[in-house]
Structures are given as C-alpha cells and as structure tokens.
Amino acid sequence: MLFDNTYFIYVIPALIITILAQINVKSTFSRYSKVRNSRGVTGQDVARQILDENGLYNVRIERVHGSLTDHYDPSANVVRLSDSVHDSTSVAAIGVAAHEVGHAIQHSTGYIPIKVRAAIIPLTQIGSMLAFPLVLIGLSMASTFFVDIGILLFAAVVLFQLVTLPVEFNASFRAMRSLNDRDILYGDELKGSRKVLTAAALTYVGALAVSLLQLLRLISLKNNRR
Q1: pTM listed for this prediction
Q2: Count of CA atoms in the C-beta half-sphere (13 A) of 20
Q3: 62, 100, 168, 189: which is the annotated catalytic residue?
Q4: d(Cα 73, Cα 125) in Å, to the nearest integer?
Q5: DSSP conformation class of 201
Q6: Distance between CA atoms of residues 20 and 27, nearest Å
Q7: Tens digit of pLDDT per residue, the chain (226 long)?
Q8: Would you say 55 and 72 are in contact if contact means Cβ atoms under 8 Å apart?
Q9: Residue 98, Cβ neighbours under 10 Å: how many?
Q10: Contact 38, 54 (CB under 8 A)
C-alpha cells in the first residue's frame, strides 16, 4: 500500500539527489584530504585553538572511530573528531574540525535554531518510528484519524530537517570566519575547506528533500483513499 506509483513519483528523485550528495561529499573530502595546510596544524589543534579563543576551555576534544563521524555532543560537552580528522593536517580535516566547534559555539551563545532543533528531537524520534505504521493502519482501516496523526508526526520530522539547515550552514559560516580571521588557512586552502563544508551541507538539503517529498506522498495517499 505504501509502495505504489506515488513512491516513484515522489521518493525516487529525492533518493537520487541524496545519493549524489553523498557521493559528492565523500569525493570532495577525499580530494582535499590530500591537500596539507601550510601551517602544519591538525584538526585537533585547530579545534582546541578556536574553542579556547571563544572561552570554551571546558569543552573536551575526543577521537572517535570512523570517517566523517565527527560531531559535537552537548550532553557530554565534547567535540568528537574522527580518525580522518583528529590528527590530519589536511584542509578538509581543518574545515570539518572548525565546523564541529561551530556547533559548540552555537550552544554556548544560545543560538535559537539549535535550541528549536533540540526541543523537537523527542517528537522527531516518535515520528520516525510511528508515522508510517500509523498511516498504513489508517489506510487499511479507512480511518483518516490514524492517517492524520501519522502525517502530523512525519511533519515533525520534516520540521527537524528544515531547522537543521540553518544550524549546519551557520556552523560552516562560523568555521570559515574563524579559519580566515585567525589566519589558520590561506587562499586556496580556505577555498578547499569551503568546498568540503558546502558538499557536506548539500547532504542535509538532500535529506530535507527526501523528507518533504515523503510527506507530500503521504498526503497524496490520503487524498487518493478518500
């Protein structure tokens, strides 16, 4: 019931965009992970420098296994840098490290979008688990009540994806400003880091496209069953 013609109309194009975005970010990171910065600083060095210069001495830096698994954990107050970033001197690693620090700065300054995103995470988790089962139950029982609840829950997922965009773009903006103002990277090095962060941002755009088209598809399924 959830795999009809609407699946190919709404979902397949968005999935293609997402796959292309993932390929792009991996290839861009791989390309610029071979370009070393002229100062010889590592991702860890840059993260620590920017954190300290923003007064975030209490934020720790930890190494986490994997590639592109970097993230800031506000609950533990720690920036986790992946194996491919932590000790790397590449301009790709420097950009990623500065981006994750950007999230730490967002939390410390009370950046509104990141507060909104954190507030709707519980509802988003419920929506991710129950939205499609509820819609399926509703369609099977010809009950618009369950379908409507499922659609509303999935709308929360879309909202989360939407709010994530300014959070990610702002973290990248903060990262590039820090790298430029503190003369950490120069010229083509800055351009390389910016390309890596732009490619990463496009993956979030792709994720939003998938969620939005899935939401439109659920609405279409509801209307077709009337």
Answers
A1: 0.89
A2: 11
A3: 100
A4: 17
A5: H
A6: 10
A7: 455 677 777 778 878 888 898 999 999 999 999 999 999 999 999 999 999 999 999 999 999 999 889 999 999 999 999 999 999 999 999 999 999 999 999 999 999 999 999 999 999 999 999 998 999 899 888 888 999 999 999 999 999 999 999 999 999 999 999 999 999 999 999 999 999 999 999 999 989 988 998 899 889 888 876 6
A8: no
A9: 27
A10: no
Domain count along the chain: 1
Structural domain of residue 99, as residue ranges? 5-224
- Can you tell me the distance from the alpha carbon of 172 to that of 100, in angstroms, rounded to the nearest whole number? 8
Provide DSSP, 93-160: HHHHHHHHHHHHHHHHHT-HHHHHHHHHHHHHHHHHHHHHHHHHHHHHHT-HHHHHHHHHHHHHHHHH
The residues facing 78 across adjacent strands are 60, 73
* Strand pairing category for 71-73 and 78-82: antiparallel
pLDDT digits (tens, 9 = 90+) for 92-126: 999 999 999 999 999 999 999 999 999 999 999 99
Tokens of 211: 């969620």
Cα–Cα distance for residue pair 148/82, rounded to 1 Å: 41
Greatest Cα-to-Cα distance within the chain, rounded to the nearest angstrom: 65
What CA–CA distance (Å, rounded) separates 136 from 134? 5
Residue 62 a catalytic site member? no
- Please tell me the distance from the alpha carbon of residue 188 to that of residue 20, in angstroms, as a whole number: 25
